[in-house]
Structure formats: C-alpha cells, structure tokens
Design goal:
Length: about 300
C-alpha cells in the first residue's frame, strides 16, 4: 500500500536538530543529482561565530560507496563536520564538494534529499509511529516494517496500543530514548538516501543492542551503492569500516584502516587502549595496506 506524501517543512526538520538555517540558495543553484555520491572536504576551516577555530584545514575524500568512520574525542568537531556537510553553516574557508559540486552551488533541498541523518538527539515529532518513520517520504508499508525489523523495533510496535498508529507524544516523550533512537534509525533506513550519516548512532542503546543494530546497518549498506559516514567515539563501530578518519582538536591527524592505525601507535591507538571493552582480536587482523587521507 502506498503511503500518502505528507508535507513537513524544512524548518521543523531542522528544529529537531536544534539548528536554524539562515543560508539561502544562490539564484542559479543547481539540483544535486541522486546516485552514488563522493564527499570531498578541501582545506575546510570553521569557527562558530568567528570565535575559536573548531576545524583547521580539514582535508579528506570519501569515495562513492565507501563506509567511513569519523572518530575523535568528544568536542573534537565530528558533529560540526556533519553540520557543514548538511550546509547548516558554511566554512570560513575551503570547500565541500559532493560528486565534484560545491555544496554552496546546489539547491539545499536536493542536498538534504540525498542525505539521511541519524542525529545524536533522536527527538521525534508529535504524531504516530508510522508518520515518524515515513517523515514525509513516499514509501510503502513493507519498506517501513522491513526497516523496523532491521532495528528490532517492529515487535515492540506491534505490542503498542495502536501498533503503527500509536501516538508517541510531544517530541516522542511517550517512548524511551532507546525506542526513539531505533525509530530514527528506521526512518533513515527507509529514506534509502545516497549518503547515510550516523552521529553516535547507538549512544542510547546498551552494548548488545548497539552491536546488533550496527550489524544490521553494515549488512544493509554493504552494497557499495551508499556512502556511509559514522561519527563516533565508540571505536568498535569503526573497526571494519573501509577507512577511519581520526579527528583531533579539529584536525584530521590520521587516516586508514584499523590495523594500520594501530600500527601507527598514535592518537587512534591511544583511543583504542582507552576503550573499556574492545575486542583484542581486532588488533591482530592480518596485514592491510596503508591508506592516505585521500585514498
Ligand atoms: N553551536 C555552537 N556554538 C558554539 N560552539 C559550538 C557549537 N556547537 C559545538 N560547538 C563547539 O565546537 C566544538 C566541537 O563540537 P562538536 O559537537 O562538533 O564535537 P564532537 O566531536 O561532535 O563532540 P561530541 O562527541 O561531544 O558531540 C566543541 O568545542 C563545542 O563546544
């Protein structure tokens, strides 16, 4: 059954991220084409309100279809990189390109159409479960239930008083943080965007639930058609990504696969050693070749 398209204006969506947009499209802004998409940060510097620098000459390329982790301590600038990518703010200098197009030259609606985001604070809006997953998208019941099953919330929804029509309360307050997070991940999976961004995707889940959801995300996006960026300080999510970017005080200081970064014995290794329950076997993975920041 086709679900009716519902209009939810952009301001509301941005309110959910506690952000306000004041950037306007250029008159001749072009529509960004959908399709597998590469991401390129070219010498990006940024500070909020021109106060202390937050990002310093950030350079990286994520090839179309790659699954990349952006790791760093709290406050290192991971969420800021995501905000710039969604063009909530413009860099002070440098450029951000998707498939070679500077995002300042593209229509912001088309930019946000090709990006699916799971933000850190998974607030819902006042409405029912179904509307919170479909979020204005034209989709099918099957796609919604498939996504709900992937994130292990389908059975819980069926136990709710009105199942998928259950009212979730103001900002989803009638559900637990964990349930809200699962619904937002289900929404992102349903959107099936070209670029998937997860900002601390499992912060409200216990370790077992987090590992299960992560496995589902990895299986869903192993097709190389989606470009996936996972921002996290939980390195267990980064271990088997195609590449890991290590952000330290606003700079990308290391880049490569887990085993290469462990061999570097630098910032990443120190982060790994500080992880409470990391899996030692991952350190002993067979040799993998080195990767430069732009590989
Ligand atoms: N809207 C804002 N205005 C001013 N400073 C901000 C704003 N948002 C973030 N910052 C500052 O920018 C720096 C980077 O924050 P950011 O949220 O990007 O880091 P992060 O690596 O995502 O951290 P966390 O994992 O805690 O979310 C921090 O010093 C933070 O205090």
């Amino acid at each position: 059954m086709e679900i009716q398209m519902k209009f939810i204006d952009l301001e509301n969506i941005l309110d959910l991220f506690n952000e306000k947009i004041d950037l306007r499209d250029k008159k001749d802004a072009v529509k960004l084409n959908s399709g597998t998409t590469s991401i390129h940060f070219n010498d990006v510097c940024f500070s909020y309100l021109h106060l202390k620098p937050i990002l310093n000459h950030v350079n990286f390329t994520i090839n179309a279809g790659q699954r990349v982790a952006l790791v760093g301590a709290p406050g290192s600038g991971k969420t800021t990189i995501i905000r710039l990518l969604l063009r909530f703010f413009d860099p002070n200098s440098g450029t951000i390109e998707l498939n070679g197009s500077n995002i300042k030259d593209v229509q912001q609606n088309s930019l946000r159409d090709i990006i699916g985001l799971v933000p850190q604070d998974c607030d819902l809006f006042s409405g029912d479960v179904m509307t919170n997953i479909t979020y204005g998208m034209s989709t099918t019941d099957d796609k919604v239930t498939d996504a709900a099953k992937l994130v292990d919330i389908h059975d819980r929804i069926l136990d709710m008083p009105d199942q998928y029509s259950t009212y979730v309360g103001e900002r989803g307050q009638m559900l637990t943080r964990e349930e809200r997070q699962r619904l937002v991940i289900a929404r992102t999976i349903t959107k099936d965007a070209n670029i998937l961004i997860f900002d601390e995707p499992t912060s409200n889940l216990d370790n077992i639930a987090a590992a299960k959801i992560l496995r589902s995300i990895k299986e869903t996006y192993s097709d190389k058609k989606h470009t996936v960026l996972i921002a996290t300080h939980n390195l267990s999510m980064a271990v088997d990504c195609d590449r890991i970017l290590v952000l330290h005080q606003g700079e990308i200081v290391e880049s490569g696969k887990h085993i290469d970064l462990i061999r570097l014995n630098g910032v990443y290794t120190r982060m790994w050693q500080q992880q409470p329950d990391h899996d030692e076997e991952n350190i002993c993975m067979p040799g993998l070749s080195g990767h430069s920041i732009n590989s």
